[in-house]
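User: Could you check the structure of this?
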Amino acid sequence: MSERKDFEVIAQLVPQGARVLDLGCGTGELLAHLRDTRGCSGYGVELDDANLLACAKRGVNVIQLNLEEGLKLFEDRSFDVVLQLETLQHLRNAENMLRETARVGRIGIVSFPNFAHWPNRLSVLRGRMPVTRALPYEWYDTPNIRVGTYKDFEVLARKNGLQVIDSFGLQNGEVIRQWPNLMANVAVFKFERG
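Assistant: Sure, the predicted structure tokens are below.
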């Protein structure tokens, strides 16, 4: 997560002392923060070599793994929390990875750009794909394989037998609970197996 306020909101969802797996952990900034401020332990999963090096420099345990191959490396319920922050939209096997997140962790926390945010809708009405803080790429050079909405994830969670414990949107670091599908540029869900 790039915005510091968003980062802090997500960190507050993770219980003190939790064993955490961060899928697509980037430079390990969040895991280091959780370790240093909340007494958490765990691992990051990352594919990019430069990010692996950044994790190592932060003292974050990191495993190089392509998430498209799943999480066979980990046993059921081996983590208290599995984070999948702004990663799901980059995966071809998003539904399978969501199930794997629920299998490996007692709690899953997912965030992704909310395509239904009102400026995105307005951009599409004008005939253009949106370019925003949460979706900063042009349509032709985006690493996102798919876009989704807050409401889409609610349907996907139900379909896969997941119980949503908490959900909200984020807009410039502020938690949005009223009309998050329309008013927030990032969707956040905390869930467990139903």
